[in-house]
Every structure is written in C-alpha cells, then in structure tokens.
Amino acid sequence: MRNIIVQKYGGSSVANLQKIMRVARRVISYKKKGFNVVVVVSALGDTTDELLELASGITKTPPERELDMLMATGEQVSVALLAMAIHKFGKEAISFTGAQVGIMTDSSHTKARIIDVNTRRIRRELEKGRIVIVAGFQGINIDQEITTLGRGGSDMTAVALAKVLKARMCEIYTDVEGVFTTDPRIVKNARKLDSISYEEMLEMASLGAQVMQARSIEAAGKYNIPIHVRSSFSGKQGTYISKEVSAMEDVLVRGVTLNKNEAKVTVCDVPDKPGVAARIFEKIAKGNINVDMIIQNVSRKGYTDVSFTVVVGDLKKTIRILENFIKKIKAKAVTYDKGIAKVSVVGIGMRSHSGVAAKTFKALAAKKINIDMISTSEIKISCVLKKKKGAPAVKALHKAFGLGR
Ligand code: ASP
Ligand code: MG
Question: Which among 260, 252, 256, 242 is positioned nearest to 204, based on CA atoms?
Fold first, then answer.
C-alpha cells in the first residue's frame, strides 16, 4: 500500500475536547487529500503526570508492571475519543491499543524497546478506507504484559510505524511551530529552522530541547525516516529532520541549548595515582548513574580534585554512594553544586570548520561569563557555568553565531 502518512499528536495537541475535534478535522483533511492516514496519539494534556502522581500517592516504589498498566490507560482514552470525533464528522476511523496492533517490545517496564511491529491489522483497516488510530507510548512483551516506551515514547511509536509501513512522512505535531535555534522564551528573535539533521536534532534533544524523544530521533536517523515537526494549531510548515545534506554544513552552528537540570559533584583531594579515577567512576556506574562532563584539576602535591556532572535527580544517590567510598580511596571530601547550567552550541558545520570553540569562549568572555567546565564532541561544544549566567550565555552565543532572525 502506498501513500501512507503517520501523524503523531502530542499531549498538548489533544489537551481538551475542542483540541481533539481540531485534530480530527486535520486528520480528515489528509484523508481527503488521498493519504492513508495512521495516527498516533499521546495521552490528553498532562494525564501521564497525573497518573504517576496517583501512583505515588499510594507508594514511592510501585511495581513497574503496574506502573505500565496504569500509564498505558492515558493513551487508550485519547485514541477512543479521537476515533469518536472522526466518526462524528462522518469519516471512518478505528482505534487500537499498542498490543492490538502487535507492537512487540522487550520486557524492561517503563522504558521498553520495540522489537517488532506486526502491520497486518493496520494494513487491513487502511485497505477498508479507514483512518487508523494507534495508542502511542505502549506495547506488549512476549508474556502479553503491557509495557511503556519511556516518557515521550509516542514519538517512538510514530517512528516505528513509519518505518514498518514505509510511510512517506512522519509528522510530529506539537504546540510549537518547529525546532528553533534556541528557546524562544529566552531569546526573542530565535528563528524556526526549516531543516536540521538527525544528528543535530539528537544533540539538541539530549541537551534539553524537548521537542522529540531522543530515542525516537536516533531510530529515525538509523532508518532514515523523514520527520516533519510542526504545530497542530496552524497549517504552517515546521522543521524537517533528515539525513545531513552538504548544504547543511555551510551553517557553523545550528542551535544553542540550555540545560539547568545538572549538578556538579567534586571529589576533593583525591590521591593522584593511576586507577583512582577508574574506581570512582566504576562505583558510580554500578549505581546506574550517568555521568556527563568530567574534569580533573591539576595535581598539587600528589592530590587532585575530580569534578563531574550528573542530572539533578541522581545527585542524592551519587553523594550517598561517594560519601562512603571516598574513605576507601583516601580522598578527603565530596561536595556538590546545584547552581550550574550547561550551555551548548550544536552544528554539523563544526566538523569542517575550525574556530567555533574560540568564538564560543570569546563571546562568553565578552559578557564576563566564567566557564567552569568544557566538553566537546564532533558537533557540539558545551560549557558549564553559573546557573544565573545560563540565559545571558545563551543570548550571547545566539548573537555571536548570527542565529537570530
Ligand atoms: N504520554 C506519555 C508521556 O507523557 C507519552 C508521550 O507523551 O509521548 O510521556
Ligand atoms: Mg504526554
């Protein structure tokens, strides 16, 4: 079957009945244009958060199987309502849970990965001329247990369906007009990007630009699924995410991101001997904590300080682990700082152009912003600085790289 389009509507696009009706009209308009439309919907508005809140009212450690059972109900509500809305407008639609359309996942509850999708049922319904509506964010494992795909996982459902159905396009509808050069709440003249590469988008998502679930971007890139991120409140073109094309390299920096969700941990007076850093980070890794940036200060008289960043949510656990451990490695103390921000510039153009780092540091220096930590990859430069300097740093970099309108 040809001419399949997958459209995913996020929670904000279906936050109330009026918005659901609006989505129904848009879906129908695509059907009328001759598309075979497969719709993926998230739970209404903040439903998922509310469900989690309910669970935490009972226990701090709910069984993950039951958590998935609970969270999956959110999307079941929205698919049914959207199908009803489409019926009301005189078109045929049918809604499905993830399990019903054979979205098979592994068994890691609350963060399951899709293993396989059985397209038979979906194709059969499309052939009947129906609009197919699939509950996002959920699947089923080999034991017939309901699983969920991690927060924001409806994007993953959409990308997976686009892949197996060989869709012409995977549209991600949200409440913003697309992907911006930076957060428009911080920089007024931030510009909507017409296109961005998977890699850049993945960096931006990982660095805090919450337009699409990072995992789903990775999958889209792997299978080269064309994505269009756009607003469900207008007909305007949004941002296309695609494979990098050489013209994309002409732009040095695509975007600037701000992440205020990390904290810095410092292990003070660590003996400067081979193997000590390995022991520290082994210990942290065992606690299932992801470390982002790491720096080691210059050694003084055989001792050094080791600093790194973790997401704020992991801070307590990190400190708890290290407080006991530092005695074993004969370090003196462990301290932390929650008052930091990470500002990053991202662009595949960095691969083929030099001077981005110098320009970044110069722009920050001109605003007297002190850099605490630096990390780089092929396509990004991140700087940790004081939290209150986060927004000024973003503004300075956005301007320095000429990203505004
Ligand atoms: N409703 C789920 C969440 O809020 C999935 C999604 O929105 O994509 O995380
Ligand atoms: Mg949601």
Answer: 256
Q: Which positions ≥6 away from 274 have C-beta within 8 Å?
A: none
Closest atom of ligand 1 relative to the 46 alpha carbon:
4
**Mutual angle of helices 390-400 and 356-366, in 10-degree steps:** 130
DSSP string, 204-263: HHHTT-TTS-HHHHHHHHHHT--EEEEETTS----EEEES--GGGGG-S--EEEEE--EE
Let me know if 388 is exposed, middle or buried by CB neighbors in 10 A (0-12, 13-18, 19+). exposed
Phi, psi angle pair for 272, to nearest 5°? -85, 75
The amino acid present at 76, given as its one-letter code, is Q
Beta bridge partner(s), residue 114: 105
> What is d(CA 349, CA 405) in angstroms, rounded to the nearest whole number?
19
Separation of CA 333 and ligand 1 centre (Å): 40
The residues lining ligand 1, judged by C-beta closer than 6 Å to any ligand atom, are: 10-11, 42-43, 48, 74, 136-137, 151-154
Residue nearest to atom 7 of ligand 1 (CA): 152
State which amino acid sits at residue 278.
Answer: A
Per DSSP, the three-state class of 48 is helix
Ligand number, closest to the Cα atom of 154: 1
Q: How many residues does the chain have?
A: 405
Best of 9, 49, 151 to mutate for ligand 1, by most ligand atoms within 8 A of CB?
Answer: 151
Q: What is the pLDDT of residue 403?
A: 96
In the structure encoding, which two tokens stand for residue 265, read together? Answer: 């941990």
Which element (helix H / strand E) includes 376? strand 373-377
Q: Which residues of the chain have pLDDT under 50?
A: none
